[in-house]
Amino acid sequence: MVEQEDRQRVQDAVSKALAQDAAYEMEFRFRRADGSLGVGFASGSVQRDAAGQPITLGGAMQDITGLRESELRFKVAFRASPLAASIARVRDGLFVEVNDRYETWFGWPARELVGKTTLEVGLWADLEAARCLACGVAAPTAARSTSKPNGSASRAKSAA
Length: 160
Description:
Elements: H1 4-20, E1 24-31, E2 37-48, E3 54-63, H2 65-80, E4 86-88, E5 95-98, H3 100-106, H4 110-113, H5 127-135, E6 146-147, E7 153-154
Antiparallel strand pairs: 1-2, 2-3, 4-5, 6-7
């Protein structure tokens, strides 16, 4: 059963899907049969007849409690790591997350990186090295940079 505090939000999303002929996706808390609290993810859509009248509201719900708990453990470990760490998308170098040690070691605070690409912030001392890294090819090192085992080069903020 959906938790009382989340019921209106769930009901509103389903009503919106019915009214706007849109799919819905949402997370909410729910009580399992044993009484324990879980996190659910639901998605669905409306099927209509030839006259446009809703005939079914189909969907599925998945218990994602374990996933959310795992994400929390990862976040705690990532933040507490004594090593500088960042997470960036491979396809475009967009920073998703940066820990506090990254600023300590390289001078780039998270607020200046998250949501921007490595090229936008000028992280790479050598743009060709960035392109080679994306392709999995070794590149020569560059001056005023942090050299990586694969030969790529990135720069600290102070070297920009």
